[in-house]
Every structure is written in C-alpha cells, then in structure tokens.
Amino acid sequence: MKLLSPEGQPLPLALRGATRPLKLDGLRIGLLDNTKAPVDKMMAHLEQRIAERVPGATTFYISKKHPSMAAEPEVFEALRTNADVVINALGD
Fold first, then answer.
1. What pTM value is reported for the model?
2. What residue segments make up the domains of the chain, in order of their start?
C-alpha cells in the first residue's frame, strides 16, 4: 500500500507581473466590472475622474456575466483589443 499526502508540493513560480506604465496619459484604460454591487457606481465615478485627470486617456467599460465565475474569453479578448491597461473592481 502506498500512502499519498493530499497536501502536494508547491512548485516555484517563475512569473513576473506586466510592466506598469509610468503615466496613464493617452492610454486606453479598460474598466472590468465583476457585476457585484456597488462596482457599477464605483466604475462610473472612476471613469469620470479619469476623464478629468488623465489627459488624452480613453476608457473601455466591460462587465463579466456572472460575479462568481471567471471572466469569459470574449471579455478578455475585448480587453486585449481595446485597452492598454485594465482596472478590475471587486464589490461587496
């Protein structure tokens, strides 16, 4: 009989985060809503503040279909196509 541990062994990760831009000026900013309350209100406020404070930046707003599920592939594709950076908001 062989006894196995359910804990597993962690694997070292060799991932690095994406390079962050130094400024948002002139960039396309994606706003990803996870559809939990009150993210829609927060994103509307954020969109307004970006328009006021970030010269030449545009925003692209998109929502997931279900708050407890991962974003759908078409949401990620839309963000890749329409945004240089993405702000993701989580509600509750």
1. 0.78
2. 28-89
